[in-house]
Carboxypeptidase SOL1 isoform X1 (Dioscorea cayennensis subsp. rotundata), 476 residues
Amino acid sequence: MELCSLRFAFVLALLLYPCFAAARGGDRRPISLLGQMDDEGWMLSRHLLEDQPLITDEMVSGYMSNSELEMAIKEFGRRCSNISRVYSIGKSVNSVPLWVMEISDKPGKDEAAPSFKFIGNVHGDEPVGRELLIRLANWLCDNYMKDSLAMMIVKHVHLHILPTMNPDGFALRRRGNANNVDLNRDFPDQFYPLNDRLESRQPETRAIMNWVKERRFTASASLHGGALVANYPWDGSQDTRKEYVACPDDKTFRYMANVYSHSHYNMSLSKEFEGGITNGAFWYPIYGGMQDWNYIHGGCFELTLEISDVKWPKSIELPILWEYNRLSMLNLVASLLKAGIHGRILSSQGGHPLPAAVKVEGIDYTVFATRTLGDYHRLLAPRESYEVVASMPGFQSKRTRVVVEDEVTSLDFILIPEGEDSVKQDEILNNYICSCGGKDKLELVEFLRGTHFEIYLFIFIVVVFLFYLLKRKKMF
Ligand SMILES: *[C@@H]1O[C@H](CO)[C@@H](O)[C@H](O)[C@H]1NC(C)=O
Ligand SMILES: *[C@@H]1O[C@H](CO)[C@@H](O)[C@H](O)[C@H]1NC(C)=O
Ligand SMILES: [Zn+2]
């Protein structure tokens, strides 16, 4: 009886939640539901309590309108055509295209490289992100030949930039979209099954969901305003309480959030948030947010970045905000090349790519290799040792221990089909992989991947042929 009424209260609380909670990046907490809200809580959220007050024409001046932003994106695409591609992932409620700029030396090509995405202007009245993202794209275009960080990103990452997810909200100068829905409350939620009505999802949300499912992003960040902090999962708590709720990759997320806050002009000096970072639910729980959905359903490690205390600052401050955030943005993208393990997973028979699962002992999370190239990208906090397992139905799993330093570690797996008498082959490979240091491991990778691959394949065919002859002889 008591349990039943408790459950009822919880469901009721969730139902009422959207009425009270406005957003990550500018919100109101469900104060009446959170009995433990204290003075300190009020202090911490002071910038987030209100929607941006009346936005005057004067405040809007100096910001790009939606059509100016579209022109700027297309102009970027023309000017930087050899390292970029412009495409749309859908339309807003009012039919404004959601333009994305992809930056890479091979834009639009399928490569064994990690992808990162930036999303700005999730909330219509938080426009700093959209301005900084177009600056980021242009800066990369201007500097990829001379700046080593820019060069590294263009060469080794596919960076996708969506300056505005909510152009209608921007035009209306308010937080929600044209239907006045808070897009950072519109995603399916792990604790909030009431949010699972697919058909009622907003077009902007659906566009993001399809985009994430179709393209494998290794990590991402969305940009908000109203505070100065790097926020990481989980955003929600089971019981709507304000408490630290660690996700399986807590350590890695804290590493990423620290990369951002410590590369920032003064985010890490925050008096409100230790080190300028926070666990979402510890700050204030939200449900239906984009961040947790990305990690759970997209295999994508997403941060929610609050990049200015004032949601809609005067446009004259934009160049300074860009300077404060530039290195943070670049370093966060480059962290894909500095933390964790990556490689390819191939079948021992013919060397074809396998969409295998990669798990790390002690972390309840799976990263999958791609179907097309068999590449996987697994972010991990550096300076630790990890036990990594690659598995695939029909193949023998393979397990390796690696020490991840301040450089992404290359780790390829050659999986052997189950039920084959492959002990000998296994032995050879294991000797190669285990008895020697990382360098030799890489040589094996190069051997299998590089020009010797044909030789490897040739030997394999010869062996199969001999086997066939032997069998034939036996038959007669
Ligand atoms: C892009 O074009 C410039 C000159 O127009 C050239 O120097 C550069 O190598 C090109 N970059 C790529 C990645 O092809
Ligand atoms: C960071 O610098 C800005 C601009 O100087 C200032 O307004 C803000 O209070 C500073 N924040 C912190 C946490 O030091
Ligand atoms: Zn926001």
